[in-house]
Amino acid sequence: MKYVKYSLGILAVLVIGFFLLGLLKPEITYDCEIMVDKPLTEAWGLSQDPEKISEWLIGVQKMELVSGQHATVGAVYDVYFDNEGQQMIIRETITEIVPNESVSMVFTSDFMDMDYQLSMEFIDGKTKINTYTTATGNSMISKSIMALMSGTFVTQEETNLANLKKAIENNTKNYSLN
């Protein structure tokens, strides 16, 4: 009986600790950067091409324009992901766009909401790409899970940017005419 009490006590402390994580760190913020050996117009064009998104965002199956005009403020997309065999849909809304410079978006899902900004700058014949993200869980459980997994989010974004760099540097489509 004594072991049951101790076990329940430890379990209670762990559960309380888990939920405290979500209270203490309800959102995560991170930024990443990469240099690409291609002109800005090509880097920008590929990053905004819905036909190329699956080349650099792991698991993306397709993007569907729900409302608005492609690549304009207010455009809303459903982005379909394969998440370990299960389809997941994330709603993307463009909140600000400056062509060949930056795009800001809000992503919403049942699990979390994310403010995301991608910016580009041409420096010494290369394109510098920065991303800045703030993600907030939509429940106490998701906030706590996100607090525990914050490093995973950074690693995923670094992987996405490495894939974007590879896609841009291997690109054969001419974006300078668009």
Describe this protein with a few key phrases.
178 residues; alpha+beta; Alpha-D-Glucose-1,6-Bisphosphate, Chain A, domain 4; 5 helices; elongated
Summarize the structure.
InterPro entries: Polyketide_cyclase/dehydratase, START-like_dom_sf. By secondary structure, the chain is an alpha+beta fold.
Gyration radius (Cα, Å) is 20 Å
Structurally, the number of domains stands at: 1
Q: Low-confidence stretches at least 5 residues in length (pLDDT < 50)?
A: none
**β-sheet strand percentage:** 35-45%
Q: Counting H and I runs of at least 4 residues, what is the number of helices?
A: 5
CATH architecture label name: 2-Layer Sandwich
Q: How would you characterize the largest beta sheet? A: 7 strands, antiparallel
Average residue-wise pLDDT: 93
What distance separates the N and C termini? 73 Å
Q: Order of helices and strands, N to C?
A: HEHHEEEEEEHH
Structural class: alpha+beta
Task: Find the CATH topology.
Answer: Alpha-D-Glucose-1,6-Bisphosphate, Chain A, domain 4
